[in-house]
Design a protein that fits this description.
Low-confidence stretches: none
Largest sheet: 6 strands, mixed
Structural class: mainly beta
Radius of gyration: 13 Å
Strand content: over 45%
Number of helices: 1
Mean pLDDT: 96
Distance between the termini: 39 Å
Shape: globular
Helix content: under 10%
Order of helices and strands: EEEEEEEEEHE
Strand order of the largest sheet: 2-10-9-4-5-6
């Protein structure tokens, strides 16, 4: 089972930026990968995903502010977050998109905390 380790979170003021990284212990080159987030008291939600070929999609609330990318050679997925808003405060996780969608994924990492102050 591939282990996923997220990093890059922190405390920023509204309008600030952060770049999250997700490093996989094995190859994820063929996988569509997603970034997810979970705010206190809320369900985990999909933020963005990227295909093995680099096609991306975003939830509406982050379009134009967040950019997902990947380095296939490094088995790493990134999430560049600009113009951060207090509503973006959450723990952010990465995971294989289809495994999450079909309910077979159960190896969530620790995530990385993002806190945006107003």
């Amino acid at each position: 089972q591939v282990e996923l380790v997220e990093s890059g979170g922190g405390l920023v003021q509204a309008g600030g930026s952060l770049r999250l990284s997700c490093v996989a212990s094995g190859s994820i080159r063929s996988l569509r990968m997603g970034w997810y987030r979970q705010a206190p008291g809320k369900k985990r939600e999909l933020v963005a995903h990227i295909t093995s070929g680099g096609i991306t999609d975003y939830r509406e609330s982050v379009k134009g502010r967040f950019t997902i990318s990947r380095d296939r050679a490094k088995n790493t997925v990134y999430l560049q977050m600009n113009s951060l808003e207090p509503e973006d405060t959450a723990v952010y996780y990465c995971a294989p998109y289809f495994a999450v969608a079909d309910g077979t994924f159960n190896s969530w990492g620790r995530g990385t905390q993002v806190t945006v102050s107003s």
